[in-house]
């Protein structure tokens, strides 16, 4: 290479560091994304259908509610540990290969859960499924940013959100029906069948839209990520069974300290595992916080509601699942509508509408008792399920649209990591508050376990409403712009690349 050619090449590389990658326009983008849509749907179906099975698992394995919650928390913990590494993995491994690996992992985990003779083996299979979901979730959003043009990102995220939220629509209903007709094991058998379909669609249609740069592997960051997120979520989750014991406090302290070290390291090394500079962009950081809070509220409600219907109102798992169907259907439709409305009106007004509706629906949950008419529950659930997608989809589109293309994968990973870790913590907090409410009811002389469960659930609903108030407060700080995102300089070792 001549001197002039070298100079030109260096200038091109330097300029490229400041230019977002152009989307890979394809003729049928939704067909390309089909395998990922099914994969993420499967992951969310697995995440949301477990809540209705918890009473059956507690009876079959003779475990406490605190132990049973690990079917939910352990799954999200696995997602939270894997997610921070996905952006890095996509820079080394073909996206198609990574997705296929994740789906095979999910398939194996589903088979293990189907035949599991003990709860620890069941949990092990469940964690394998969490690893899979942790991979496909951010990969889907990173692929969307490459496959669809910028002016269609809102609508594309609306479709992705519809796919995700369709799982809560049918998840509890299908789970309740399968438990009523067969047992909870049939749910995992269904997961295995859907996983096979996702593998076939990914192998046939998915292309690799994400560029591989093969940066240096930082083993310390990988270990710090796993230890930090794992200890933090595990510590919070164990509070319901162990209280603030020395072991729990130690886990929490280790988690916080290691995560602080991890964050500092990502901001100082040349090739970070996860580019945390995205959090320095206010237009991304604010909606990312809003998404985490609204997602945490959703998971706290979805953890409490199906159990309250069964253990508080005395309904069967099949009836409980059917009662959650109308709200889920409306939620899915509003998710699709919110993505399209974002492209026209932006995020702020939609967040205000969503926050008001969610608080109103949450307030109705406080009126539910052991003999409350089903109509009140349906009204409360439907109102909340209308409000949440207006927060979630608009904030998510605003966050992703605020970043330059070369930060899309990291931004998606950061956002999804925050959601899953905060969601796991929120579920654990809801479990603790549920137990606290039951304890206070018993201490006041209450002797009806069903009423005690209803009282405990109200503590969790209050927690969810506080999270929505935080979202509303953050919405006033939300900055929206129709202009291209401000680009962040990226250090490029030109001498090494042109050697």
TrEMBL record:
Sample GO molecular function, one term: transmembrane transporter activity
PANTHER family recorded: LINCOMYCIN RESISTANCE PROTEIN LMRB, MAJOR FACILITATOR SUPERFAMILY MULTIDRUG TRANSPORTER MFSC
InterPro entries reported for this sequence: EmrB-like, MFS, MFS_dom, MFS_trans_sf
Keyword Ribonucleoprotein applies: no
Domain of life: Bacteria
Originating species: Bifidobacterium leontopitheci
Transmembrane segment boundaries: 34-52, 72-90, 97-121, 127-148, 160-181, 187-207, 219-238, 244-263, 284-305, 317-338, 350-368, 374-391, 421-439, 459-478
Residue span(s) of domain Major facilitator superfamily (MFS) profile: 32-482
Protein name as it appears in the record: Drug:proton antiporter
GO cellular component: plasma membrane
Subcellular location: Cell membrane
Main location: membrane
Cell membrane among keywords: yes
């Amino acid at each position: 290479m001549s001197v002039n050619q070298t100079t030109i090449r260096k200038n091109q590389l330097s300029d490229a560091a400041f230019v977002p990658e152009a989307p890979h326009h394809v003729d049928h983008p939704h067909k390309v994304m089909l395998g990922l849509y099914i994969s993420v749907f499967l992951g969310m179906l697995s995440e949301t259908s477990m809540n209705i099975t918890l009473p059956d698992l507690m009876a079959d394995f003779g475990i406490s509610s605190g132990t049973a919650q690990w079917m939910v928390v352990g799954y999200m913990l696995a997602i939270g540990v894997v997610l921070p590494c996905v952006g890095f993995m996509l820079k080394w491994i073909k996206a198609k290969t990574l997705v296929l690996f994740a789906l095979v992992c999910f398939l194996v985990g589903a088979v293990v859960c189907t035949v599991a003779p003990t709860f620890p083996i069941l949990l092990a299979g469940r964690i394998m499924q969490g690893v899979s979901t942790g991979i496909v979730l951010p990969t889907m959003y990173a692929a969307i940013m490459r496959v669809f043009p910028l002016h269609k990102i809102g609508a594309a995220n609306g479709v992705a959100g519809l796919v995700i939220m369709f799982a809560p629509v049918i998840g509890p209903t299908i789970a309740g029906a399968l438990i009523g007709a067969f047992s909870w094991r049939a749910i995992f058998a269904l997961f295995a069948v859907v996983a096979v379909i996702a593998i076939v669609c990914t192998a046939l249609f998915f292309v690799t839209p994400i560029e591989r740069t093969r940066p240096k592997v930082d083993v310390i960051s990988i270990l710090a990520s796993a230890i930090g997120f794992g200890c933090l979520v595990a510590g919070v989750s164990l509070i319901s069974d162990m209280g603030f014991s020395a072991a729990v406090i130690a886990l929490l302290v280790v988690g916080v300290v290691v995560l602080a070290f991890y964050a500092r390291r990502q901001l100082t090394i040349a090739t970070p595992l996860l580019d945390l500079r995205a959090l320095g962009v206010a237009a991304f950081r604010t909606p990312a916080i809003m998404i985490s809070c609204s997602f945490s509220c959703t998971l706290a409600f979805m953890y409490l509601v199906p159990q309250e219907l069964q253990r508080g109102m005395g309904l069967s798992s099949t009836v409980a699942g059917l009662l959650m169907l109308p709200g889920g259907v409306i939620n899915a439709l509003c998710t699709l509508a919110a993505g399209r409305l974002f492209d026209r009106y932006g995020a702020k007004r939609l967040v205000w509408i969503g926050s008001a509706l969610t608080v109103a629906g949450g307030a109705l949950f406080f009126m539910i008792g052991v003999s409350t008419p089903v109509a009140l529950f349906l009204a409360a659930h439907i109102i909340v399920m209308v409000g949440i997608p207006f927060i979630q989809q608009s904030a998510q589109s605003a966050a992703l649209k605020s970043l330059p293309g070369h930060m899309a994968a990291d931004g998606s990973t950061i956002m999804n990591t925050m959601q899953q870790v905060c969601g796991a913590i929120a579920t654990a907090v809801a479990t603790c508050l549920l137990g606290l409410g039951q304890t206070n009811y018993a201490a006041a002389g209450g002797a009806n376990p069903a009423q005690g469960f209803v009282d405990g659930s109200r503590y969790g609903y209050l927690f969810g409403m506080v999270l929505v108030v935080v979202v509303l407060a953050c919405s006033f700080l939300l900055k929206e712009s129709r202009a291209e995102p401000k680009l962040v300089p990226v250090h490029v070792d030109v001498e090494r690349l042109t050697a």
